[in-house]
Amino acid sequence: MTAPQTSPQPGLRERKKIKTREAIRTAMYTLVDEQGYDATTIEQIAERAEVSPSTVFRYFPTKEDIVLTDEYDPIILEELRSRPADEPWPDSLRFVMHRAITLGMKDPHAVSRLRTRLMVEVPAVRSRMLESMSETGRMLCQAIGERTGRDPGSLEVRVYAMSIIGGLMETSMYWAEQDHEPDFDALVDRALNVIEHGLPTENH
Q1: Per-residue pLDDT of the chain (204 residues; tens, 9 = 90+)
Q2: Which of 65, 110, 176, 198 sits in a 20 to 30 Å window from 119, CA-based?
Q3: Which residues contact residue 198 at a Cβ distance below 8 angstroms, ignoring those fewer than 6 apart?
Q4: How far apart are CA 106 and CA 109, in angstroms?
């Protein structure tokens, strides 16, 4: 997935920031894979990424943020804004969610598995994920408001946006709990079907 062509390309400073963030994430994933989450310290991450501990904290306030934070939310927002104006909202949402999956899976597949496994196994990661959902939810509320003409701060838009965010989080955790065996795209389709149509009449 690429950002829409109308989006400005990041400057040198922003590219350096992205490179540093990616180095820190890579160091974190490698260390967790080698020795586990609890045994991995900020000092070790900093040493592996060849930065100072203060730099790690400047980019990521907590260790959990290294696991959860990515660069994709602004791109997803732009993708939603770039969909045809006459396209039904559920179709736009489904298209962009699958594009987001493609973007997320551009990293080594093991990274996606590790991130979702940590969401299930580490309470601190799961708790931080719940906290970060509100920020992503506000972004989605804005996109829904722009697309539908509704007030982004209305109860209806907020409930709908958070049902999407929460549903995708539960889908990721379900995928990890099933040892990452099911096709993730298919699981997202099932989740979006529930959000759009309610519970199916038959069990899966």
Answers
A1: 334 444 456 677 788 888 999 899 999 999 999 999 999 999 999 999 999 999 999 999 999 999 887 766 677 788 888 888 888 888 988 888 888 777 665 565 678 888 899 999 999 999 998 888 888 888 889 988 988 889 999 999 999 999 999 998 999 999 999 999 999 989 999 999 999 888 887 765
A2: 198
A3: none
A4: 8
